[in-house]
Every structure is written in C-alpha cells, then in structure tokens.
Amino acid sequence: MKRKNDLFFIVIFIVVVMLSLTYLARSSYSKYRKRVTGNVNAQIASWKIKINNETVQNSGELSNDITPTLDSDIYTKEGVLAPGGTGYFDVVINATDVDVDFTYEMTAEVNELTPLTDLEIIKYKIGDVETNYSINNKITGDIAKNTGDTSIRVFFKWNDDSQTETMDNEDDTIYAARSTNANTKIKVTFKFTQKQS
Q1: How far apart are CA 32 and CA 177, in angstroms?
Q2: pLDDT (tens digit, 9 = 90+) per residue, 60-118?
Q3: Which one of 2.60.120, 1.10.10, 3.40.1130, 2.60.40 gives the CATH number of domain 47-194?
Q4: Under a CB-based contact definition with an 8 Å cutoff, are residues 146 and 99 in contact?
Q5: 3-state SS class at 39
Q6: What residues contact residue 195 under an 8 Å CB cut-off, 6+ apart?
Q7: Contact (CB, 8 A) for 87 and 70
Q8: Where are the domains of the chain?
Q9: C-alpha span between 176 and 84 (Å, rounded)
Q10: FRET partner for 122 with CA separation of 20 to 30 A, picked from 37, 40, 107, 177?
C-alpha cells in the first residue's frame, strides 16, 4: 500500500510539475505572440497661398479686384487712363503658410468683352528684372516652401501709335465717351503646381 501511495504521490507530483512548466512556457512565449496596434500621426503639408493678402485656397476667383496704378502727366487727370497712357498693377504671392515648393504660372490679358483693343500688357518685373510680355508668354517661377512675399509688377499701356494701333483717334474718342466702358478690365489668371521629386 505504501508503494501505491508513493506511486500516486509521484504521479500527482509529475502532473503538477508538468502543468506548472506548461503554464510558464505558455506565458513566456505569449510575450512574443501578442498582437499590438498603434497609430501613426502624420502632419499634412499646408497649402495656403495668398495673392495680395487674400487666401486662394478652395477658391476660383479673388473676391477683391486688383487695383492698378495709372501714370499721369501734365496733360492727363490723375487716376484715369487715356490714349498713350500707361499704368501697372502689382501681384504679391505669399507662401508663408505653404509647406511645399511650388511653381506659379500667371497670364494677363485684356478681357475679351472690353472693346478697348489697343490696351496692351507690355512687360513685367520680378524683383529687379524686367521682361517684355507677349500674349503667348506666361509669367512663371518657382517659390520655395514657407517663403514670404514674391512681388510681380505688370505694366500696360493704351497703344496710341498710328503704325501699330487697331483703334484710330475717332474710335478712341467714341470708346472714352461711352460711360459703360468707364472701367476696362484686365484678366489675370494664376495656376499653382506643387513641385514633385
């Protein structure tokens, strides 16, 4: 009987040891079998371009007109455009809140609904560099991320040269006499494209 008790005790002991070892083995391996999830937080680059202090994000048109400066002389009232007169307007592109480098493309043309066909864009200036403008040209450049103001000055004139004008003096007079034509519009179009690596 003592032998049966000893055998019974040994069997119980072996079972307890085996269960203990199995538990320890499982718990130590489970460290390597656990499933863990996490989040990756990536900040999205800002694309907040401003033209003349107006944000153009998600907008197809500026809400404020670009105001030109009209050159005057002793024969012309200040603030008006007359045959032979000139002027300019400034466009300031601000990329302070833009986190990627980009390319801009700008065109300027007399609005097709304006009967003043002698109004011409003649040149533009970026920094200290002046460049002649033609209708087929686009004003282009690159702007680095988080750059302040990039200024573009566009010059125009009312062509009054008898060799190149399309309107003669009578047409000029008729145009100026019509009150509905008091404001002549120049259409300025911008395109911004993120640079790719």
Answers
A1: 88
A2: 777 788 888 988 888 888 888 888 889 999 999 999 999 999 999 998 887 676 777 77
A3: 2.60.40
A4: yes
A5: coil
A6: 100, 101, 102, 103, 142
A7: yes
A8: 1-38, 47-194
A9: 13
A10: 177
